[in-house]
Each structure stands twice: as structure tokens, then as C-alpha cells.
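Review session, final week

We close the course with one last complete record, chosen because it touches almost every idea we covered. It is AraC family transcriptional regulator, a protein from Bradyrhizobium macuxiense with 266 residues. Go through it on your own first, then we will talk.
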Amino acid sequence: MTIAEPPIRALHKDRRVTGDGVHMVARSYQKGVRLDPHMHREAQLVYAASGTMQVTTPKGRWLVPPDRAVWVPALLPHAIDVLADIEMRTLYFDQAWLAREKRSDSLGHEFVVRVSPLVHQAILALFDASCGRERTDLLIRLVMLELHQAEDSATFIPLPQEPRCRRAADIVLADPTKDHEIDALARTVGTSARTLSRLFAAETQLSFKSWCQRARIAAAIERLSTGTNVSVKQVASDLGYASVPAFSHAFRQVTGRTPTAFAEKT
């Protein structure tokens, strides 16, 4: 596993050093770019000010549209797939800084946060060249204070590790729009429907049906956040829902919002 070079040794046009322990990187990536599995010595908050990305860790897969950001602990393997052109703004935090701030324990696992307008503006302000040291420190503390208050698992798809269950999950993810029957899927991966159902519950904390619904809604989120002039009605039809109300109900169950409200935010 590659340990990426820390972004703190030299100042480049896309890098800023804010002081002892917190560092920032601004980069642009085009749709289709993949950052293969790697890790950093620092923890990081990865935010796409525009565009959509997908972040994969051993625990699962997060879809990260513009109103989300992902926290990645130090030395955690992760990969990033760019689903739509992004303007990435990343904050890196040394472990010593987190320890001094007494935040190491609470930030020991990866998670996604919903980015409020306040946090969005705070992150953008951090990359303003005229932002002084005192203002920078205050903005960083504001962002950190908001992290756990905004934790959100709506776009998370837990990935099972047991080989048969993982093969079944990969089949579903390859075509989440299909109505996957657990009996047929179990035969394909060489087990019984009862065993596969038990494995999904144990490995993902979701029933097979709920897990498939989450995968389908994640596909809808990807379409809504990366498609050009795509309508909710079209997405509902493409994903196999009988009607827009049925799609909206399922979408709200997973995300807490209607697809129309989600599309307006992206």
C-alpha cells in the first residue's frame, strides 16, 4: 500500500501551510480520474466544492456529492473515483495536532458529513490567499466543531468481506437497477438464500433487501449529481421504480430528503 507523500514539505501553487499541524491542498480532477488505493500519514477532510466523487475504504463505499465531505483517518487505505469534474479542497491534520486538540479518539474512523452552507463557506475561505493566521485558526476550529454534528451515512454502502457475500454484493453493484432475487444470487455465489441473507445482516448491519435499496439509491444520487438535465422522472424509470412517488418514498427512506430536494442542492 502506497503512503502518499505528505503535502507539507514545500509550498506549491496548489498548497498552503496554515501553521503547525494543519495543511491544505487545492486540486482539480476531471471525470474518470481514479486515485488508486493509498494512505496518508495525516488524517484528512476531503471536500469537493463542486463535482462528485466516490471514496472507497475497506469498510465500504461513500458517494460524495457537493453537499458532503469525507473524513479519512491517518494510515487508512482509500481510493477516490471522480464521477464528475471536481474542485477538491482537502485539509490535512497531523496526529500530534489532533491529540493536542483531544480529537484523536472521536475521529478514529471514516465517515461522511453533510456540509452546511456555513461549513462550505468556511472551507472556501481557508483557501483565500488573504486569510490571516488568526482567522485561519478560527475557521479550522469551526469546521472541526461541525464534523460530528453533521455526520451522515445516507450515501454509504457497507461492503461485506466474507467472499460469497462480497461476490453477491459486487454483482448487485454492477447493476443496481436490476431486481436481484436472493435465491438466484445465492446459487450464483454457491450458497443458500438463508445463508446469504444471514451473511448480509451480519456483515453490513442491513437486510439484503435494505442493502439493495441503498445501492439503488446511491445509483440515483450519482445520476442526479452527475447527469446533465436529468429529470427525477427519468431516473426513477431508469432505476426500475413503478412511479415517481414510489421512487421518492424509497429515496426519502435512505437520505431523509426527496430526490427533487436533493437535485436542487447539487
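Two points worth writing down before the exam:
The mean pLDDT is 84.
The chain has two domains: 2-150, 160-265.
Good luck, everyone.
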